[in-house]
Here is the input.
Amino acid sequence: MQLKEKNTTWMIVLALFALLLGVGIQIGLGLERDVRTTAQGRAIAAELAAEVRQAAEDREQALYLDKAALAALPAEKAAAYEDLHLELLLLVNPWNPVPADYSVEVVPVGEWQIGEDQSIATLCDDALLRMIADCQEAGYRPYICSSYRTQAMQEALFYNKLVRVLSMGYSWDDAPDIAAQSVALPGTSEHQLGLAADIIDSEYTYLDEGQERTGTQRWLMENSWRYGFILRYPNGTTDITGIIYEPWHYRYVGERFAKDIYEKGVTLEEYVALRRGR
Ligand SMILES: [Zn+2]
Here is the structure.
């Protein structure tokens, strides 16, 4: 009887021990799992937070200061800031002529040009020449074949285009519209802003779609945004821009906007509309 009781007591002690051990293991595993989950969760959360922060920073960089920040700036600085951004994103197309009071200071582009003396707005001559030099450095042969144009130059270009279109057999009624798709109507060309440049590869000097296959254009299409330039008339956007696909025409909008436009994959028309809708 005594032995039986002793055995039972031991069995109870063992059972309790086993139970405690089991609970202990469960708690241990559970804790370990919790710790691991938490660490993983934290890592993911940190990654996401970094992404969100990066996106916010990019957005802030790309879009000019919000209204509150702008209001906090001294009036003079704020006005200058707004003026600069209005100029950088100034939209000139068949529906938006160059403003009557627009004036621009230009400087010669120097050695990287084909044809007569080319000049470009002082706002972007540095960026343009840096871009051309780096493109050369990368092993390509870019040349500026057209940049700033006065109203008279644009009229002469348009006149010549009109003559060519008429000689192709188009009617007097249709010819101006056809001509205007590749040479902007005088008063509606971005070249008149001094912020645009036509850049070609010296080994392929035709202004046609074949230009996109040259090393120069492939490099420019990938890198121009880094210098503040955008490919202004991308393939398939004629309905929006009013101009044919021009894999040679680059427009300066400044680095922040160029990066944003490049990343969004939109035209200047769409970008300006997006910003107005903000
Ligand atoms: Zn052009």
